[in-house]
Write a structure and sequence with these properties.
The complex is a heterodimer. Chain A is an alpha+beta fold. Chain A is built from 5 helices and 5 strands; from the N terminus they run E-E-H-E-E-E-H-H-H-H. Chain A folds into 2 domains: 2-76, Ubiquitin-like (UB roll); 86-150, [2Fe-2S]-binding domain (DNA polymerase, domain 1), CATH 1.10.150. A 5-stranded mixed β-sheet of chain A has the order 2-1-5-3-4, sandwiched between helices. The longest helix of chain A is centred in the last third of the chain and has 14 residues, at 103-116. By secondary structure, chain B is an alpha+beta fold. Helix content of chain B is 27%, strand content 25%. Chain B has a 7-stranded mixed β-sheet. The chains are: A alpha+beta, B alpha+beta.
Amino acid sequence: MTYSFHINGHPVEIGSAAMTGLLEVLRDELGLRGAKPGCGEGRCGACTVLVDDVPVASCLYPVALAQSRHVRTVEGLAAPDGPLTPVQDALLEHGGVQCGACIPGVVMTLTALLERTLRPTPDQICDALVGNLCRCTGYHKIVEAAVAVGRGEER
Amino acid sequence: MSPRQLPPVIGASVRRSDGQDKVRGAAVYGMDHVEPGMLHARLLRSPLPAGRIVRLDTSRAATMPGVRAVVTAADAPHLSGWVVKDQRLMAADEVRYVGEPVAAVAADTVEQAAAAVAAIDLEIDPLPAILTFDDALASDARPIHPARDTYTGAGPGGGNVAWESGLERGAVEDAFAAADLVVTDEFSTPRQHQSPIEPHVAVGRFEQGRYVVHSPAQYPFLVRDRVAEFLGVRSSAVRVIVSTIGGGFGGKLDAMLEPFACLLARRTGRPVRVANTRAEELATASPRENAVVRLRTAVRADGTLLAQEGEVIGDNGAYSGETVFCASIPPVLLGATYRIPNVRYRSRVVYTNTTPTAAFRGVNAPYCVFAQEMHLDHIARELGVDRRELRLRNVLRAGEEMVNGQPLPDAALVDAFDAVEKVAPWAELTAARRPYRGVGIAAVTWLSNPGPGGATVKVNEDGTVTVVSGGAEIGTGAMATSVRQIVAAELGVPVEDVLLAQTDTDSASFDGGAQGSRTVFGVGNAAADAAGQVREQLLKAAADILEAAPDDLELAEGHVAVRGAPHKRVPIATVASTALWSTGPIAATGRHIAPPLPFDSACMSGAVFTHFVAATYHVHLAEVEVDPDTGAVRVLRYVVAQDVGRAINPQMIEGQIEGGVLQGLGYALLEDLRVDGGRVVDDDLESYRLPTALDAPPLEISLLENPCSYGPFGGKGVAEPPIIPVAAALGAAVADAIGRPVHELPLTPFAVLAALRGEQDGVGKELA
């Protein structure tokens, strides 16, 4: 089957079996290796991308479901040679990045949250992050970063 | 360092040099590394915990579609080991744990490799599996390694004891005879899995007669040596190039998949990628060992500790990794925090037919400290003494000796208790008793890993500085911030101008690896040494340009300037490019070796770790609330006071404390890598429960600066220890909340509920 959808604003046509995971398509066919295959079982959230602005675990998300939808990945947030988005910048400013393997997923989850909730509380942020495991940071600085973005302390 | 004012970059929370790539998704981790023409490998793993291989036929698999090579033990027959050389790359005639590699296949696709693995004909004649300490230590136990004593590196011990270490000091019997009270406890703790977001992965190739492997390796020089040993070549025939590392926590110190990638690359003439699935990662990748700790202590009525006997048994699994290396830590650690004049400690690491265990942040300290602190609470309860007061009466003070006779001139344990007290006054917390609420307090003295290392610093012709080292950036920021800050401070250049070369065993001097918080301490010292030499070279070269004596020059703001005449200055770029033709390129290699420290070696046996280098001092306090209906533990408040030597990058240190505390919370409350019948039960992240954002407790952190005379700008190891006292502090708080003792981890809702309902007389202790 061939599936047509948008990746980071650009139309793509993918010839794949319907149940092929979107993560595999992104990484192996489209060369977008930002989303990480942390567990392959929909638990760690390192593969989180946005489908029509909603975070999904792309490792379990069948490519067929992306038909006619808009998929956003971490590569689509800031231009490669452009400035970081407020979420990306805040994560660095607040020390929320260590090994960083979870961060592409965290960035997408927080981006989606801040698009629908202008000033999220720490509790709302933790609720949103519950599907993004981070083994390094203890989450505090990630939450602080998101609070700061909501307060407009980042560009 | 103290008389000189610290350069402002020391103590600045500068951003990480790898941060932009990481937040953009552009960083290339081990799991992202691909090469043209790359093949994919899968391993055939033993389905049984113990047995003899009676048939291994790969002929059908070798002819399957896409298959390029199949290898077995015959292709890599050499014995290897980090310490004890008791393992082959693949099982030769006997399997010793579920998941042990037996064969490996390289094919065009992962699916083809998996299909070929399934087509290998493997027949095993089962042996009775030895899965518990009691079975392994029984006098008639089958030795899991009958050839144990012949292995290179075999340590003290025998039978199924892979390593035995001890420490004895003072007159133990006399002290027990004179005691007012003797208290005895036994504690048992589970396996904990490192579970980095990035599972183990390696891409190998064979070029110019050498193996080249890309790996997210924490200790690239160890990986190099182990690959060479497994494959029977000299170590210089292996080159390890370190990718961005997606978390390690000790699990990526030793070689695991790298030798397979190398062997198959040579056999096929193509690059080969090997990657663990999450299930393989949890089932086969070297967790923290399960353990039993038995303590018996003699005390005086006033709470003075008189003597202690201790026995620690840790599970080695079927083969030896770092666990045997660490066997000698408990005997020192148990007497490193409190004054115990008479002791007899024995530590054994025991072979079982289970997945080999290895280092996880803090190695055996989290369970030793859990045991010691719960035991101290038991003593306090028996004596009717306040728990904090009991600790303060016995805690080591500056200048006193640890149990190994090592003086601690900079001991800051009392300062750490005071710092916690300032934030969370103990009397208030314990006076305002509320049902199902409890507090716990725990202390520990810990070390900075003493491993040696070198680093090269070179000044580029544009005035920037490159650090070439074997230091691996595992995420702590040790390389990406602190080592750069140290070099920037030494050379007076902006930290943004200090660049890191990719870590590569071909170009870097030996380095002892990203373990035991040693990167800022070890690589930092080596880089500072190199920068000091570079500084002299720069001053010498600039002296000619500025027509001044080198002694009259100083480095600041990217310039060499005449002291007292700041307008007379020349950019470092000019000095470096001019120097090419006058003194030669500006570069130097520095070295780090931990200084010798006094201790009493006569009291120890079987000891690899004999003393604590650049010791650090820690006190943690926890307040919890237990839900009496569900048994769930909620951490209301968590307080940390940590001696950090010098806070070179305070934000990064806080990040280590926050992350370490949450890993410790996972160990205390959630994580339990269960083994049943030799099989790892929790082989997915559904049942192996890692802490989420909702589990992160409110944290209050005090960084105590207590400079180390031989650390860079006073720095000590800071990243490893915050995990160590967490299970102790939380365990004590839970025991306080439920009014019953705690002897086992993790404190899951089920365990707490069982204790609350009186099904047991505490957590982990059956009613008689």
